[in-house]
């Protein structure tokens, strides 16, 4: 008999309740667990890129951050463990003039660096407001419907010599890849079945701040 039965069914209920408690993981469709954290790469950054990929309950923690190095530009490449359909980008940046002026998102561009990124057209871009909270930026889902990796480009700060990022995450839907991405030719059939697994993705979505 598992030891957690020892104080009666009340304890068991707590265990059960905990499974439905979303305060630690945040919004139901937060993609934190589907980010391939060990392969996140930050260019012109003071630390490993993965330090800004945090679980929801650490989103406001300012003890770990990424700061740009030689100047105020930074690139963060974020691979996912499957195919994702993105609805929102979540960012905590700053403070003040260290806030990036904007962020440019590039879908499925895996090796962009500072030399070639200016020649590419971003999939979407946003101006970033200063603030201590996590900002949510609504993505054009049609343009981010089959994403295996995302590159974020922060071209300039709002006046400081460096840019600082505390937290990066995404809201969306994840689909498992049946095969390794290199065998893309054989994936067309398999993915149809995958899509049926995605249920309840519309409605009942609240912003992270609520």
TrEMBL record:
Listed Pfam families: PITH
GO CC terms in record: cytoplasm; nucleus
Signal sequence extent: none
Biased amino acid composition, Basic and acidic residues: 7-27
Chain intervals for the UniProt region annotation (Disordered): 1-28
Record-linked InterPro entries: Galactose-bd-like_sf (IPR008979), PITH1-like (IPR045099), PITH_dom (IPR010400), PITH_dom_sf (IPR037047)
SUPFAM superfamilies hit by this protein: Galactose-binding domain-like
The family this protein is said to belong to: Belongs to the PITHD1 family.
Full protein name: PITH domain-containing protein
Native species: Crucibulum laeve
